[in-house]
Design a protein that fits this description.
The protein has about 270 residues and is mainly α. It has helices spanning about 5-15, 20-50, 55-85, 90-115, 120-150, 160-175, 180-195, 205-225, 230-270, and strands at about 155, 195-200. The chain contains 9 helices and 2 strands. The protein starts with a helix and ends with a helix. It comes from Streptomyces boluensis.
């Protein structure tokens, strides 16, 4: 390689490695996901394995882990907005996918795994491990498809991974019967890899999503500190998350069916003399 070409390559390399503001937010997303795994391990799993009876510590750690996942969702929301307004580095898209895998794939899957491990039932532990793997693989497939499939502007194909992660942890926190919990988790994983169209959080929808995240953090904090009515508030918030997760695909499917019928009617009308 000529010396001039080598010098040009050396000058270009630092430019491609510079982090933009959007990239910094994306790294904040990854950090929150990792810390969610940390608090799930130190505050829930280790006390269970060592025989500790401090339920308050487990509750605080569970709330902290979920709040960190919510913070990761905030970072994920704003890194896209900042990237569109300013700029992103050449590795911005890759950083975003890797960070989402940690925060919305590994962290919720690990939360499900620990949920099964703290149960005093060997069968539940093994089945929960399968459920955790399903969640992780669903996010992996969803992120891979997002990178190579083009969809119409303003929509996602399949439940977005941040929304799916929050739905999964809401299912666990609701403390439903084990079979119902597992089926709901698998259903959420299926929605993430489905072709159901979800609107992208822009404008008013982004504001509504941010407000919902802040409200969820408040509910988790009330529950963590054993505030009066905190358990009821938490269950209400988790139930609303599940309802929202079920209603959006129903509306999207109904709209798709109506559009299909309208197109068929227009085609028939065009064929008439």
């Amino acid at each position: 390689m000529p010396e001039a070409a080598e010098e040009d390559a050396e000058e270009e390399m630092p430019l491609s490695m510079r982090l933009s503001i959007a990239d910094t937010l994306t790294l904040g997303n990854a950090t929150c996901g990792f810390m969610a795994v940390y608090f799930t391990t130190t505050g829930i799993l280790i006390p269970h394995l060592t025989g500790s009876d401090e339920t308050g510590m487990a509750r605080n750690s569970a709330a902290t882990a979920v709040i960190l996942m919510l913070c990761a969702a905030v970072f994920d929301l704003f890194d896209g907005l900042v990237a569109r307004k300013l700029r992103s580095s050449p590795m911005g898209a890759e950083l975003d996918n890797l960070s989402d895998l940690i925060s919305f794939g590994l962290a919720p899957a690990y939360f499900v795994l620990v949920y099964g491990m703290v149960a005093d039932n060997t069968v539940h532990q093994r089945v929960a491990a399968v459920g955790a793997i399903v969640v992780l693989l669903a996010v992996v497939l969803r992120l891979a498809r997002f990178s190579c499939v083009t969809v119409k502007d303003g929509t996602f194909q399949g439940m977005p991974s941040p929304f799916g992660a929050l739905t999964v942890v809401s299912i666990v926190l609701l403390e439903l019967p084990f079979v119902a919990t597992l089926l709901a988790i698998i259903g959420t994983a299926w929605l993430m890899v489905s072709r159901v169209e979800y609107p992208k959080p822009r404008g008013r929808l982004a504001v509504a999503m941010l407000s919902w995240i802040v409200l969820s953090m408040g509910l988790l904090a009330a529950w963590a500190f054993d505030a009066p009515g905190g358990q009821l508030l938490l269950q209400t918030g988790c139930a609303l998350q599940l309802v929202l997760g079920a209603v959006i695909p129903l509306f999207a499917t109904a709209r798709k069916v109506n559009n299909f019928r309208d197109n068929r009617r227009e085609a028939r009308a065009a064929q008439l003399p």
